[in-house]
Amino acid sequence: MNGKNAQNTKVNESSNSVMASDYKVLVGDDDVNNARRICSILQLNGYGTTTFCSKFYSLKELEGYDAVILDIVWRKNARPAHEKDDYFGLQGARYLKHNHPKSKIILMSKFAFDLDRLNEINNIADDFFSSKSADSVKILNTLSQALNKSDSVDDNSRERIVKNFELAESILDEVDERNGRKPDLLGLSSDIHAVLLQEVRVLKSILLSGTGESTLTDISNHLKILIESLNMCSGTITKSFSNFLTGTLNSVQEIDLKIHSCDVLYIVGKSMSDNRSIDTGGGNYIESNSGTYIQGDYISMNSDLVQAASQIQDLIEQLQKRGLTTDVAQEGIAKDIATQSQNNPTIKEKLLKWGQSLGDATVSDVVKGTVKLAIRSAGLPLP
Fold it and tell me: How far is residue 238 from each of residues 117, 223, 352, measured CA to CA in Å?
């Protein structure tokens, strides 16, 4: 960052200087130059008490700080013999979470694309940044957001999911060819990388912008593109990043967006205005106003057929109450499961597990028959 930008950063942040001066911040990093750089940025922008030390000594200094910035991984040959875990930052974060839950934890690493415990990193930390590319603005914003973050954030809240998308965006940006690296570091082609980066950015923007029916439609459309792109590179993409991004997409349906029971990973082929969402207590579903079909929330159902049976039975009974025979109701639900399984790998895997337990599961013949029919309709082999 040039001097002019650094000056602007100081001016822009000066309004927060009085509040910032009340915070104590510790930076734990074996890279002395990087730790000193971060502390200098913080001091320049009003953080009065900032301390840096090596990762090893930072474990003795964790108490009494409002925020702790920890490098995640031990540097080469720096890990003490008694330490068994390469991920130092996670060790420190777990200690803080248990003993000093009010302290904010920010994890950093030179790069994020080569880390293989992304879910754990993002779940335990209040925030994360890549120290190699983070400028003054990024570091200050990250610290400010962490310090002002609520102490209780639901794992499936909008804030948590946006945070996941931010990490995914950061990782994809690290391997962008414009930054001198190659997408194949993540097992991606240039074309797939470009699509993933664009769609992650768009979805993050949508989630930050608001709610409403148009938002649901946008989310569904962009999720479909992301899922199709992930499927295209399923044989090459690194497992850690694939699992992290897939888990984030699966969590989107849980955020407070008036999604109710509609699985946004499945693109409903009918207008939302023609449907109404109902919560029966036994399981949510979407039904048409004419009552001719019901769409189940299968992704939220248990992969254990015994646990899911009551919800499947409930869907069938809702159609029966509208005058449909059991056979017709079974066929409708089976087709719904089959259609969704073809568009959503998670539901497909769940359907296969249900099929594998048909012989042992103590569930009604109606539910068993529905699952069998769904498997046939999806073109899957019966177990």
Answer: 12, 20, 25
